[in-house]
C-alpha cells in the first residue's frame, strides 16, 4: 500500500490492504449524508471499525468510528481510518468527509492505553508511526474535513478533531474535549502542541496543556477549540450545513489556502519523523512512564458509572 508518509501496516494489510475494508456494514447502513442512499456506496468503503456512508450526489462521505466501547485508537482502528480516508480521497466523487462516532457518548477516548503499556519497542515504533500517519493524512487532507463530535473527546480524540477544518460539538456537559496528556504523566509531542497553538493560541495552549484541561462544551466554544456547540440531535445536520459552506468555495483556492496555512506545521514533523518515533519509544519505555500509564488505566477500569 503506497502511503505518502510510509506507515507500516500489519502484515495482512500489506498483503491484502482491502481485506481491512471488506464490507461488514451490509444491512446496517443508516441513511447517507445529504439524504442520498448509502447502499452500494457503503459496500465500497465500509470496514470493520470504520463505517463509511458515502453520498455521491453531495460529494460528502460520513465516516463513523466503531471501535466499542470507547473508540480507543488501537493500531487496527488507526490503520483502517488511514486506509478509508485514502480511499475516499482517491475517489474524485468526494470533496468532503464528516468524521463522527458510531459509539454512544464517546467520539474517541484517544490513544488505546493498552497499546502503550507493557509492549516492546518494535510495537511502540509501529504504533507511533500509525499515529503520525493518521495525523498527517487528516491534517493535510485536500478534502474538507468536519468533525461532528457526538461524545467525549479527550487527547487523541481531540487530535483527530483538531486536524479537521471545522468542529461541531454536541451540547452535553459530559462531552469534554481537550489534551489531558499531562494527567496521565505523559507529554504532548511538539506537532500536536503546534496544532493546539494554531487553533486556540499560545497562552491558552500553554495553560491548557500544562493543566491537562478538558473543556466542557461552553468553555470549548469560548476558547475556540470548537466552532459550534449545538443540541445533540443537531450535530450531524449542523456538520452537513458547515460542510456545504466550505464546499461552496472553489476547491483549488481552498486547498491552496489550506496548504499555505498548514504546511509549516506538518513539515516540522515530516523533517524529523524518525527522531520523533525514537523519542516516543524511549519515553514510553521508561519504567516511570509505564507505571504512570498503568496506574491511570487501572483507575479507569475501577471507575464505573
Ligand atoms: C510521548 C508520550 C505519548 C504522547 C501521546 C500524545 C497523544 C495522545 C495521548 C492519548 O490519547 S492517551 C489516552 C487519553 N485518554 C483518556 O484519558 C480518556 C480515558 N477515558 C475516559 O475518560 C472515559 O473512558 C471516557 C472516554 C470519558 C468514556 O467514559 P465511559 O464512562 O463511557 O467509559 P469507561 O467506563 O470509562 O470505559 C469503558 C472501558 O474502556 C476502557 N478505556 C477507556 N479509555 C481507554 C483508552 N484510552 N484506552 C484503552 N481503554 C480505555 C476503560 O478502561 C473501560 O474498560 P473496562 O473497565 O470496561 O475493561
TrEMBL record:
Keywords from the UniProt entry: Acetylation, Fatty acid metabolism, Isomerase, Lipid metabolism, Mitochondrion, Transit peptide
Which GO BP terms, alphabetically? Answer: fatty acid beta-oxidation
Q: Which GO terms describe its molecular function?
A: delta(3)-delta(2)-enoyl-CoA isomerase activity
Quaternary structure (record) = Homotrimer.
Its main localization is: mitochondrion
Q: What does this protein do?
A: Key enzyme of fatty acid beta-oxidation. Able to isomerize both 3-cis (3Z) and 3-trans (3E) double bonds into the 2-trans (2E) form in a range of enoyl-CoA species, with a preference for (3Z)-enoyl-CoAs over (3E)-enoyl-CoAs. The catalytic efficiency of this enzyme is not affected by the fatty acyl chain length.
UniProt cross-references to SUPFAM superfamilies, sorted A to Z: ClpP/crotonase
Q: Pathway, per Swiss-Prot/TrEMBL?
A: Lipid metabolism; fatty acid beta-oxidation
EC identifiers of the protein: 5.3.3.8
GO cellular component terms?
A: mitochondrial matrix
* The keyword Phosphoprotein belongs to this UniProt entry's keyword annotation: no
Q: Which CDD domains match?
A: crotonase-like
Q: What Pfam family is a match, any one?
A: ECH_1
Q: Output this protein's name.
A: Enoyl-CoA delta isomerase 1, mitochondrial
Question: Where can this protein be found?
Answer: Mitochondrion matrix
Tell me its family.
Belongs to the enoyl-CoA hydratase/isomerase family.
What catalytic reaction does the record list? (3Z)-decenoyl-CoA = (2E)-decenoyl-CoA; (3Z)-octenoyl-CoA = (2E)-octenoyl-CoA; (3Z)-dodecenoyl-CoA = (2E)-dodecenoyl-CoA; (3Z)-hexenoyl-CoA = (2E)-hexenoyl-CoA
Amino acid at each position: 500500500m503506497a502511503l505518502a508518509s510510509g506507515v507500516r501496516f500489519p502484515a495482512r494489510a500489506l498483503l491484502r490492504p482491502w481485506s481491512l475494508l471488506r464490507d461488514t456494514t451490509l444491512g446496517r447502513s443508516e441513511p447517507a449524508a445529504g439524504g442520498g442512499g448509502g447502499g452500494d456506496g457503503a459496500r465500497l468503503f465500509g470496514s470493520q471499525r470504520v463505517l463509511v456512508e458515502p453520498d455521491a450526489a453531495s460529494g460528502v462521505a460520513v465516516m463513523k468510528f466503531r471501535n466499542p466501547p470507547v473508540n480507543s485508537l488501537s493500531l487496527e482502528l488507526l490503520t483502517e481510518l488511514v486506509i478509508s480516508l485514502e480511499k475516499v480521497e482517491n475517489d474524485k466523487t468526494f470533496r468532503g468527509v464528516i468524521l463522527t462516532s458510531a459509539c454512544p457518548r464517546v467520539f474517541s477516548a484517544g490513544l488505546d492505553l493498552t497499546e502503550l503499556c507493557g509492549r516492546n519497542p518494535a510495537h511502540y515504533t509501529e504504533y507511533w508511526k500509525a499515529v503520525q500517519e493518521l495525523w498527517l493524512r487528516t491534517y493535510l487532507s485536500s478534502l474538507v474535513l468536519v468533525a461532528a463530535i457526538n461524545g467525549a473527546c479527550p487527547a487523541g480524540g481531540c487530535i483527530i478533531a483538531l486536524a479537521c477544518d471545522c468542529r461541531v460539538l454536541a451540547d452535553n456537559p459530559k462531552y469534554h474535549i481537550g489534551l489531558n496528556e499531562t494527567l496521565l504523566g505523559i507529554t504532548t509531542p511538539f506537532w500536536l502542541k503546534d496544532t493546539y497553538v494554531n487553533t486556540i493560541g499560545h497562552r491558552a495552549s500553554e495553560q491548557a496543556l500544562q493543566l491537562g484541561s478538558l473543556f466542557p462544551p461552553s468553555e470549548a466554544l469560548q476558547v475556540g477549540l470548537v466552532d459550534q456547540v449545538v443540541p445533540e440531535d443537531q450535530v450531524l445536520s449542523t456538520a452537513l450545513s458547515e460542510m456545504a459552506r466550505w464546499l461552496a468555495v472553489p476547491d483549488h483556492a481552498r486547498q491552496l489556502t489550506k496548504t499555505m496555512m498548514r504546511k509549516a506545521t506538518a513539515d516540522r514533523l515530516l523533517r524529523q519523523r524518525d527522531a520523533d518515533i525514537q523519542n516516543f519509544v524511549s519515553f514510553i519505555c521508561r519504567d516511570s512512564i509505564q507505571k504512570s500509564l498503568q496506574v491511570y488505566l487501572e483507575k479507569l477500569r475501577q471507575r464505573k458509572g
